[in-house]
Design brief:
single chain, alpha+beta, five-stranded mixed beta sheet, three-stranded antiparallel beta sheet
Length: 417
């Protein structure tokens, strides 16, 4: 038992596989709780929905780690490992207004509902192409063969990474996803991405296109005061945040559905009927029930404040536990039950306030298309092997499966449909 919490304790063995009992205990007994994280950093965990929503929008909680915990950040104990050494810290997850307002405005046009909707045919084409690669085998690891590459290729297309270079990005993203620690592959992958993005920005200046990096260059050239470091950091965080959240949305969602065959069949019927509204509600419920982002990214108190009855001192790290808030019975009816038709569902899966996830519309699109293509192409999709043998990546911010082995009736002939 750790931190006074039962159910195996916070961050203990088995916690990543099912953190929800521990979070339920915290919600009831210690809703704003000072915990020692696996990195050794002490931080406040906020677990109730109402407190979480307030904290996410509270301007007294800064996103800038250098203002309060420069030493911990330099040691790779807060933030994204390797980002400081690679010089990509000036991104949306690490800055406050007015810089945050300025930089977010520059990229917001790329994620308008209209632009995201126009991207759907490309996402659908990518999804079918990936299924073509394994549909004839009758089995696959859906993380490695589908959930991981789909958002990588999609975000590369959006950024304007040439097709010839996208496999390099897939390799670097894999290093970031599957290794941890300051001395591991994460730092090396971040540095390689940084070097590549800097070079790509220089190359695109002579050959601007309709992609996001070209848009950042145009904004910079028209007096928007976007530095080269800011452009590279922006491209990096859009790639980093834009792929891992969607990997986990698809992986966690499929895991949830495959464990509930009746719900899986219900969602397949929704897709067969072409009911876009019901499909959208189902994706929102999967986001609430077992979402890709377990804890919101780091915040630091700019001044002493009271949060959920607890005194938070200036400089204290604060982590909002989205996974706990989204199962708060004070806000959601029967929150531990999956309800694909849930209507009143203001979950916090992509945050709240000015730092609400910029790429949420794209992630939702990718998730909806991914579920539809898989369920319609593979009508008897089922889990393979022992559920208890599945391994989870227990990172502090994100939570997702390392693999998801499945079986299905092999397609006799493959081809995009």
């Amino acid at each position: 038992m750790s931190d006074g919490c039962p159910a195996g304790g916070l961050f203990g063995p088995g916690f990543a596989a099912d953190p929800y009992p521990a979070y339920a205990w915290l919600r009831e007994h210690a809703p704003v709780h000072r915990a020692t994280l696996p990195s050794g950093v002490s931080a406040w965990l906020v677990t109730r929905y109402a407190d979480a929503r307030r904290a996410l929008a509270d301007p007294r909680l800064s996103k800038n780690p250098q203002a309060h915990t420069a030493e911990a950040h330099a040691q790779g104990r807060v933030g994204i490992p390797g980002e400081r050494g690679a010089g990509v810290m000036t991104h949306l997850l690490n800055i406050d207004p007015p810089d945050h307002t300025r930089l977010r405005r520059l990229v917001s046009a790329a994620f308008t509902p209209r632009r995201v909707a126009a991207f759907e045919p490309r996402v659908r084409e990518l999804a079918h192409r990936l299924v073509d690669g394994f549909a004839g085998r009758g089995e696959a690891d859906l993380i490695d063969a589908f959930a991981f590459p789909l958002p990588i290729y999609a975000i590369c297309d959006l950024l304007g990474v040439p097709a010839a270079d996208q496999e390099d990005f897939r390799e670097w993203a894999g290093m970031m996803l599957h290794t941890t620690g300051r001395r591991g592959g994460v730092g090396r992958a971040v540095k390689r991405m940084r070097a590549y993005l800097t070079d790509l920005i220089h190359r695109k200046r002579d050959d601007l296109g309709d992609d996001l990096i070209s848009g950042l260059i145009r904004a910079s050239d028209h007096g928007e005061q976007l530095t080269e470091d800011e452009a590279a950091a922006m491209a990096f965080i859009l790639l980093f945040a834009g792929f891992e959240t969607t990997v986990n949305l698809i992986g966690n969602g499929l895991h949830t559905l495959l464990r509930r065959p009746a719900d899986l069949d219900r969602l397949r019927a929704v897709f067969d009927a072409g009911d876009d509204g019901a499909a959208g509600r189902a994706v929102e419920e999967l986001l609430r029930f077992d979402g890709p982002v377990e804890l919101a990214t780091w915040r630091f108190a700019n001044e002493p404040l009271t949060l959920g009855g607890q005194r938070v001192e200036r400089g204290d790290p604060v982590l909002v536990v989205l996974a706990a808030a989204d199962r708060d019975p004070a806000r959601f009816t029967d929150p531990d039950r999956l309800d694909l038709g849930r209507g009143d569902n203001p979950h916090l899966g992509y945050g709240h306030g000015i730092h609400y996830c910029l790429g949420a519309p794209l992630a939702r699109l990718e998730g909806r298309v991914a579920f539809e293509v898989l369920l319609r192409r593979l009508p008897d999709l089922r889990l393979a092997g022992d559920l208890d043998a599945l391994r989870w990546r227990g990172g502090l911010i994100m939570r997702g499966l390392r693999s998801l082995p499945v079986k299905f009736t092999a397609e006799r002939m493959t081809g995009s449909q």
